[in-house]
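ingest -> fold -> write
write: protein_1
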Amino acid sequence: MKMSDIIADMILDMFDENNSTIQIQRNDLASQLGCVPSQINYVITSRFTPEQGYRIESRRGGGGCIYITRAETKSSAIVALINSIGASIDERSAKANIYNLNYHNYIDDKTAKLLIAATADSNLHGLPPEVRNTIRAKQFKQMLLAYID
């Protein structure tokens, strides 16, 4: 098993039914696992993203820590994704977000297929890429909002 998998599993084990927010001391966790603190950062930024239903908050200073909050409901996970999209999104990123939503069972297979089809470059053919990505982001956000209503 890779070190990043071990770190991710250990962080996931810290969550329970009563606790949707955990606090991590990066240096303590790194020394516990025998790795460098940057590996902890890598796992947190790559596996605990808004698209996957997590919010990260970092506190700096003496004894700084990282708070990871897990979205408690499907709606809050989708809202977190909407908030993370920004003003534009390319087809590849939209598709990755849709796959993550489907993988975590926030949307079903049919909805995932519809979202992928709706956000495809072929729908925006002829538009400059920057305009295409802006329109795709607006449409994607609106579709996600309609899904949670």
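write: protein_2
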Amino acid sequence: MNKNPHVPAEEIAAQAEYSRMCADIIRERYYYKIPLAYVHSFGCQQNVSDGEKIKGMLSQMGYGFTDNADEADFILFNTCAVREGAESRVFGNVGSMKKQKQRNPKITLALCGCMVQQEHISLKIKKSYPYVDLLFGTHVLHKLPQMMHERLSSMSRVFNITEDEGTIAEDIPIRRDGTVKAWVPIMYGCNNFCTYCVVPLVRGRERSRCPDRVLDEIRSLIVDGYKEVCLLGQNVNSYRAGSDFDMNFSQLLREINNIEGDFRIRFMTSHPKDASHELIDTIADCGKVCRHIHLPVQSGSDRILQLMNRGYTADSYLSLVEYAKNKIPGVAFTSDIIVGFPGETEEDFAKTLELVKRVGFSSLFTFIYSKREGTKAAQYSDQTPKEEIDRRFKQLTDLQAQIAADNFAGRIGQSVRVLVDSQGRLSPDYVGGRDDSGSNVEFKGGTELIGSFADVEITDFRSAIIVGQCRMQN
């Protein structure tokens, strides 16, 4: 393990100088306009957070931003490797850029992130997509200014897929996508090596940010008016692992909770094998920590959990859920479940359905098993037939839809506090946001409410959206 994963301050300063030199080139080349960048992040919240850093660095170089790739001078896809579908979408988007590149050869097309960190993918792109100009992996994101300087200076293709256990780069400029809610990574990488997951192979080993850095960032966000921070990590319960400071995740939550201001704290993701009673007690004690725990179970079968290398049993998972329900009134659980893991039998799947019924998740993220090159599960020969997977997937989603509907119906008449963050989807004169449990809530109101908390009485629900009536805002 890298005992000192932090990028030296001198390196960060050097990258800032590269940004300045890039800005000089861009001003000379685009003297007649501000060049526009299109940045799209696929996949998880960590990727979204990385995308905000990419935008921050590009902004320092002099780029403006657009949501329309057709009008961009710089196009970047920040990729995901967790499932085959995400990779297919990336290749589809890159393929569609070929004609745009032919129309305007000056456009820079870039790929980065988890997908391109894989050697077989980066080699494919180099060989089959010659119009991709810039390609870099997860461990060198902070070197974007240097890579851009090389690209702008020579107009040659630039590739950097450094193999590394992982780094922590502080003081990278961030251009956040919103003004109400903010992502705050507290750690990077993963040590768990679940047999289906490629993340440890592309994100490196676990390394944690210094608590003072995390707390300072959050204090600054609250001063700037943000009302919610979401702490990010592949396994936030492993916070402190491999570090030289003495503060675990529960202690960090308490420190954040003590920061002055009216704001909420969320976190993801929490691994069941490391989620402790201490964590549950901390959530119960801390008024700013949301009563919502995303706790991916993946399967209800101990046999499948062992094949997945998850490190817990269905009983231990249910025991933790029961403890939380006793300690935290109204706590809501969401989860991830994989359908069709190699060797999954009808009996295994029935155990998953039973666990879902017992927990009563407020929502589920359900996925069909996706074979990932380099993982142990990719070598398993007992792959489940597609028609069987499709049948099970529908059975699971139908069950969860009924559970969610029952949960929502039982909440009619309750009052919830909602952080309003967007215009509603149900009607133009509605606004919406999430309550403490993570549920989507919409009610009639003007966009001037965005960025504030509102007390809402639940009156109805429509599919996955709770409908209410505003009683008070603050």
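write: annotation protein_2
The longest helix spans residues 386-409.
The chain has a mean pLDDT of 95.
pipeline exit 0
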